Amino acid sequence: MAGSILAKRRLLRFVASASVYAFSIVTLLAGLIIGLSRGSPSVPGGHKIWAMLALVAVLAVIVVACQTFSEYRRRQHDPTWILKYQDRFDQMKQDRFEAAKTLIEQKGQLENLDGREDVLDPIDDVLDFFEDIGFYERGGQISPETAHHHFYHWLRIYRQAARPYIEAWRKDEPARWKHIDDLFETASEVEMEEAGCTRSEITLSCDKLDEFLKQEMKFCSRVGTYDKPRP
Question: pTM to 2 decimals?
Answer without folding.
Answer: 0.76
